[in-house]
Amino acid sequence: MPHVSDVLSGRDIGKFANLQLLAKQVVEGFCNGLHRSPHKGFSVEFKEHRQYVPGDEIRNIDWKLYGKTDRLFIREYEEETNLRATILLDSSGSMAYSGSRSNGLTKHDYAVRTAACLAYMLLQQQDSVGLVTFDTKVTSYVPPRARPKHLQAIVNQLDKTRPANETELGDVFHELANKIQRRGLVIVISDLFGDVDRLLKALAHFRHSRHEMMIFQIWDPDELDFPFRQWTQFSSLETANRQHLVDPAQIRKAYLEKLQQFREKLTSGCSRHRINLVPMTTDQPYADALAAYLSVRRKSR
Amino acid sequence: MIFGNPALAWGALAFSIPLILHILNRSRFRQVEWGAMHLLESVVKVNHKRLRIEQLILLLVRCAIPALLAMCLARPILTGAQMLTGDAPVSLVILLDTSYSMDTASSGVPRFQQAVDAACDIIESTGRGSEVAVIQTGGSPTPVFDEPVFDATAVVRRLKSLQGGYGASDMQQSLEVGLAALANMSPVRKELVVISDFQPADWNGATNAADLIQQQIAAMPLKPEVTLLPVGNPVTGNLSIESLQFSNRPIGVGQEIAVRAGIRNFDASSSSNVRLSLKIDGVEQSVTQVALSPNSLTQTLLPVSFDQTGSHVIDVQLAADDVLETDDRYSAAITVWDNINVLLVDGDPSSQPLKGETDFLAVALTPYSLGRLKLSDLVRTETVTASKMSAKSFNDYQVIVLANVPRLSDAEVAALKEYVSGGGALFVAAGNRIDPKWYNAKLVTENGLLPCEFGLPRGKPDEQVSDEQGHATRLVVQHFDHPALQFFNDPANGDLSSAEFTQWYELLPVDDRSAVQSPGNSEQDTTSKQSIRGANATIVARLDNGDPLLVQHSFGDGIVMQFASSCDTDWSNLPMRPVFVPLMQQLITTMAAELSPPRNIDTGAAAVVLLDDVQQAGEDPTEASARSSQTVTVVAPDGSRRNIKTLPLKRKQVAKFDGTQRPGVYTMTGPDGQPVHFVASTSRQESDLTTMEEVRLSGLAEELNAQLVKSSDDYLEQDRLRRNGREIWKYVLAALLLFMFLELVLQQRFSRVRI
Asked: At what angle do helices A169-179 and A196-208 cross, to 10 degrees?
């Protein structure tokens, strides 16, 4: 029976524990200068006043304001429920790549670990976490739950997934955007390979559904600097008979340029949609990258 | 395009190495399962064509690099490239044939002119900073300049005024001198050019010594390029006076001397009625017609007589209209003696005619005077008895004869010794009255004046000489090397063996007495000329029992001749024989003549004149060294004048002139105004104007590892090729470096490595 420790080492968990402690401190309002103090549980966050219309609950009328203005206003609060996070894990073929510098981990392995970390962390915070794995279509769906035992279900599912098939993020995301009705946090862990425009449209769809989005883009270092020297036959991980025999030294610059374009396009598209895009490379400890992201996110809030 | 090292050109096949590497690389590729295919594919699709072209270019550049390297090593020589002139400084030595055969006019212009023009062309084409040396090979190799010259125009100017006409070239020696000169020159490119008409005779030595020359070349750290440049076409039809022979015997005024002229006809056709004129001191004396048969030597006797004493030049000239004029004339210097004073010291005088010891000798030496003939005798004799000998001043005589003189006083011996060592001639004859012990003690042991001791008397006295009894001995007749007896090598001039000797003294050489005494050894000593006292004493003639009859040696500056028998009829019948007169004449005059330096010399030998006759008389010999030196003017054949100072030597002043490289007449005029002529002559082997055939010439070039060119233009062309070859080599190297650089740049550019 798979366990958290299968995908997370003790050290990794330890790191999270610290983070969690930090998050806890944030939640409890110790760092007042930095954060508003969000109350967990019931939503009490004031949003706006609006004029009373018949049918509104009387208890929501702001009597103090009535006293001042002699008009009836309704106090509206932002609804603040427990965070519903859905982790979308890409298990397409391209995630199976493993370079020489990634400590033997494929991108998928890395992604799985990242997902486990996130799930663990979120569950620790009493948030509900769901998991969707997909390639060309959704392959599995674990609905969000907040029970601590739910981690086991997620880890089981993570353990089962194997990278295969092509990627078509656009269609999958459209499908998922329809499926995930309740608004929440959508965490995408993928290399995002595919048509950027369609991807961005799908992401926009998510955003349209008022989901908050966070994308962990998994890179292998080889994909970023293309270090090959001798003649190489590149065969596609996703499609069986697509292969190219090239002298890597020759096309290197062009490749890097193309890569740069791709990343810029993604970055600009994501920032347009206010999506956090976090590139991660498999040679860095995933926990470190995750921790670094979380601290960034904490600051930006 | 030709290659200096053609074998290395195969190295160009190394171009295949990058090709093979490329193919190997392509076939041994690495396989990568790649995720980011959409990035890669877009790149590959867009750049596919460009990549292929770039690959091809890079491959071509890489293939070119080893090919260029191989080309570089193969030293390619680009033929037909005219654009480069070799400006590199060069060490250039030109061996210019200045032998007289170069005066031959072939195709209008003398060969020498052609050679000079070719040399000038070559010198003018040398670049700045080149060192040039020109060596004249005629006679002995002589550099035109003492040091190699940098100024090409100066060399050319000098060459234009150069005259040929020297003696035969010794090409072996010339090559050695040239190579030695080349080794001392600084520019690294060494060129040796031989400009000659390549007569086979000149090259015999060089052909034999080809190995030596090759060794000399091999020993040089920088190998020279040797080039042979023949000038002139082979011509035939040359007539040449090959030799002019005459007796070395002194002659007097009015005496006739036969000059034998050897004329060689190199033509295949005979020439009749060729006019041969004889000039004495420039005045034509006689003209004869000679007929010359084809390819042969014709000898003609020309009688010459002189009506004045002194030094004369006879000049024999062929009036032939042939290609080479230089060898149509031949000159010789002849000294006509006033007279030769001979003092006869009679040790056994007699009042009866012909009974005195020297009577026969006096008659033999002055036959005309005694015969009351009109002709004058060269020799003037004076006879004294031994007792009155001391009254005479020896220095007035050229020759002193001691005939059967028993003994001399110590003062006489001392005077005689001084006379001989100062350049006098002494003839000592034995006889019944001599005291051998005294001779041996005083003249041989104490003073060394005589070459041999008198040993035991031999033969039987007072006995009737007859052949049958075998007591008498005769003179061994063989080929005589001694100049006095060479006359008798011709049997027509008398038979020396006709005289019989009944008594004689054994002559014991001082150093080797025992060898002559032992009969066994005497058999081996029958050579007429043998050294018995170092190189000093020579046996001039022997008796047929092996005993020396005439022994000569030099003493100081003079000569002494010792005669084992007597001069009268007591011990032999020699004076009764007809041969006695010429024998004594020859002996005495030759002794006198030998003491004067030769006037007919080989080119390069020193012309020496002794100025002693006038000043010496009556002067104290000790003052000789104190006398100031005199000035002698030398006029060379080309008209140049030089003054030389004489050097005192004993009682004489010696004027020595070394610069006789040019054949011709040199005239020395001393303070007394009497001209002394010298004739420097050279071998006439050059007169054979045939040049080496093509085959032999190329054989020679091969032996010397030399290059054979047709003309100076040809040489310059070849030279340019050689130089351009090197230039091309450099350019290929530059291209190689460029390609290597290009490869780096292209690789950078194409692959865009950015780590």
From this structure: 10
Residue range(s) of every CATH 3.40.50.410 domain in chain A: 4-25+82-300
The predicted-structure confidence for B417-433, as pLDDT tens digits, reads as follows 888 887 788 888 888 88
> What is the CB neighbour count within 10 angstroms for residue B127?
15
Largest CA distance in chain A: 82
Instruction: Please give the Cα distance from A180 to A190 (Å, whole number).
Output: 18
Topology of domain B600-681 in CATH is Immunoglobulin-like (2.60.40)
Q: ipTM score here?
A: 0.70
Chain B 55-114, CB below 8 Å of chain A: which residues?
A: 55
DSSP-derived pairing of the beta strands A212-219 and A185-190: parallel
Asked which of A8-17, B208-217, B490-499, B683-692 is least confident by mean pLDDT, the reply is A8-17
Closest Cα to residue B199, out of B270, B114, B106, B99? B99
- Specify the DSSP element, H or E, that contains B403: strand B399-403
Secondary structure (DSSP) of A32-86? TTT---PPSSS--EEEEEEE--TTS-GGGB-HHHHHHHSS-EEEEEE-----EEE
Q: Is CATH 2.60.40.10 correct for B239-337?
A: yes
Residue B687 three-state SS: helix
Q: Which residue type, as a one-letter code, is found at position B649?
A: L
Are A255 and B35 an interchain contact pair (Cβ–Cβ within 8 Å)?
no
Protein fold of B340-594? Rossmann fold (3.40.50)
Nearest-by-Cβ selection for A250 from B39, B46, B54: B54
Q: Give me the long-range contacts of B737-745 (CB less than 8 A, separation at least 24).
A: B739/B61, B739/B64, B739/B65, B739/B68, B740/B65, B742/B61, B743/B58, B743/B61, B743/B62, B743/B65
Separation of alpha carbons B124 and B716, rounded Å: 11
Answer whether 0.90 is exceeded by the pTM: no
Contact list in A for residue B44 (CB cut-off 8 A) is 244, 246, 251
Q: A43: closest CA among A18, A75, A77, A87?
A: A77
> Are the C-beta atoms of A142 and A130 separated by less than 8 Å?
yes
Assess whether the region B90-235+689-710 and the region B340-594 belong to the same CATH fold: yes
Mean of the pLDDT values across residues B149-160?
83
Tokens standing for residue B485: 């007896």
Contact B189, B157 (CB under 8 A): no
B90-235+689-710 CATH:
3.40.50.410
Report which listed range, A222-226, B507-511, B523-527, is most confident: A222-226
Beta-bridged to residue B111, according to DSSP, are none
pLDDT at B615 over 70: no
The residue of chain B nearest to residue A226, with distances taken between CA atoms, is B755
Residue to test with chain B: of A105, A109, A228, A255, most B Cβ within 10 A? A255
d(CA B131, CA B149): 5
* Angle of the B16-27 helix axis to the B37-73 helix axis, nearest 10: 160
Contacts for B37 with CB less than 8 Å, ≥ 6 apart: A94, A193, A234, A236, A237, A238, A239, A242
CA–CA separation, A231 and B750 (whole Å):
15
Per the listing, tokens 């509206």 go with: A76
Q: How many CB atoms lie within 10 A of CB B713?
A: 13
CATH homologous superfamily of A4-25+82-300 equals von Willebrand factor, type A domain (3.40.50.410)
Hey, is the C-beta of A101 within 8 angstroms of any chain B C-beta? no
